[in-house]
Predict the 3D structure of the following.
Amino acid sequence: MASEYPQCAKCGIDHDERACRVPGGKAPAFCPTVGMVPAVERALAKYRDPEIREFARQASIQEAEGYMHRDVKPLVRHPVKPRLQEICEFAQRMGYRRLGVAYCSGLFSEGAALGKVLEKHGFEVVSVVCKAGCIPKEEIGIGEEEKIRIGEFESMCSPIAQAEILNEAGTELNVVMGLCVGHDSLFFQHSKAPVTVFAVKDRVLGHNPLAALYTIGSYYERLVKT
Ligand code: SF4
């Protein structure tokens, strides 16, 4: 373990001189590239598994192909692909046929639209809503005062059921559409297939949580400068 916990988010080294970007580059005291070599090597050993290696290789190719004019120097990054296209292309690269969509009932239309687009691209789509199973919230110890509609029956969100159903359907890649904070974590933990996220839940900001960070400087200037 390094003398300090990694703090990449606080790295003050110039982007192109960082130890994680150029061999022999500069590193602050909390740098994991320099201070946590065993962890990096353990990760490398995992990439030697042929299946993981191929997954990582295709993801890396997909990443690069998200930009155009890559042969022009100096490189000016010109992104060209929305995430929807990237997910379709990545699944095709991997040769997947059957995809899962784990969606939130609050994003029913979006889940339906995503399913249609994936089908148009030739995939077999298995979609499961978060309420699948219709299990009462009391099952996980939720009291009346902790429900959204106090005093009424509420079906719990069961991301574990979503994962189990998709596992049983044999999906090869699962796409998350707007699952809530924590529910998404459970889905990630219990899905057998690899998971990618199409969208995350943000009830206030149009499911774009980054908006909170993009505007934070206007009311909390000191926070973004440190
Ligand atoms: S890995 Fe090291 S050099 Fe790279 S951002 Fe983190 S602290 Fe900075």
Notes: The mean pLDDT is 95.
